Task: structure prediction
Amino acid sequence: MNKTKEEKPWVLLNIAGIKYGISCEHVLSLNEIGKTTPFPRAPREIKGLVDFRGISVPLVDIKSILAAKSKETDLREFNTMMDARFQDHMNWLAALEKSVKENAEFKLTTDPHKCAFGRWYDSYDTKNSGIMFSITFSRFNFPHIAIHAIAKDAQAYMANGEHDKAAALIEATREKELRQMMGLFNDIKTAYKEVRREILVTFGRGRSCVGIAVDEIVSTERLGEFDEKTLAGTCGGSKVLYGLGKRKSGEPVFLLNDEYFLETFTKALA
Result:
């Protein structure tokens, strides 16, 4: 790595939960990603072309190169999980209803903190999740607790021989709290998609530019304790990464080799 890069600030990026740095030396802009135009003849590492000040710039699939989870995969997994957690509560109510009809013991958890959704909900950190996601997230609390709470009430009705009241309570919960949760699961999938909107980092020299899509711009700061040897043989070694740098806190940062990206992917479109 040349001395100029070590002395200049670095733009710190979050890519799939890992900190990366790119030298300010060649960074031209940080913007939301606009329309991506397909480019059929491009190498598989190029997702398409984006416009930068009238220039068609290759959008490099940085996550694929770094073997990181793509935005599309992350959204699909989140949506699948939310659909499964809603189905859990449909199944939970159906099991409670069956226990009432058969006058049998209800064996599923009545504790809202111990179901799969409750464990996820209690452990999920919304600190960097955006306002709409956080608001939607908080709205789950009441209906989720209310659904689990009816199990004890239904069991009390059954103990008194009031099976009709237990059945009516379950049906009312299905029409109110469960329907409310269904809307919240749909809302939180939409909010999560907004949270996962990527940022376009464009860097280059003159008309030779490249773009990469990242999850977050963390900061711009100077780094120290550069190490180019540790990463030899990993992630393409010195091709993709220069090595490691450290923040003042001691946190390591993987340093992207912007010159490699410029040389490789601007030539690919020539």
Remarks:
- The chain has eight helices and eleven strands.
